[in-house]
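3.2 Worked example (two chains)
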Amino acid sequence: QVQLVESGGGLVQPGGSLRLSCVTSGISFNLYSMSWYRQTPGMTRDLVASITGITEVTSYADSVKGRFTISRDNARKTVYLYMNSLKFEDTAVYYCHAYLSDNTNFWGQGTQVTVSS
């Protein structure tokens, strides 16, 4: 059974930091590209950051470049999203996504991040 379990969300003030974690099970983690998406009510689910499996090449949405960092620990089958200098507009539900080139993919259940003063 495949599971992606996110954690680390919460309430943070503008300018603050959070670290999201996504622990996976049931997949050959090191083969999967891993991504973080986010979604606000009534909006599309948008890609925030991704990291490839073997080569660990990263990419970021323009809105988070320089503030967020994605990383992975293949031994722990976990992907992280370090979020710094958080802004009000970063408020969203953040989802973990695992993807293979044959379009096999899985989603986590999401974790809420709220940036508020």
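3.2.1 Second chain
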Amino acid sequence: QVMLVESGGGSVQPGGSLRLSCEASGTRFSVYAMGWYRQAPGNQRELVAVISAGGRPRYSDSVKGRFSISINNTKNAVDLQMNSLRPEDTAVYFCNARYFEYSEEFWGQGTQVSVSA
């Protein structure tokens, strides 16, 4: 079964930076896309950024110019570099992976990102 392991969350002051990492394992197949979503208390889960295996990224408007997503196809891994963090970025961040061979999509367990003074 596919497993996604996330790392890199934590607490930071406004204007600071964090880097999230996620690696998929448990399958011989390669991802066709990976991404990051987030969910703040009382809110629905929302897209942060996704990237295709070919390296094409897509960002939510709220993080454009501040966050950068990258993919490592060899490792089936994805990173999210988060700069100029704001209090409204506070949420649990979830890694997501999609494969052509599976109809379902896979999620990590979530990692907390907290931004406060």
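3.3 Remarks
Residues 56 and 65 are 15 Å apart (CA to CA).
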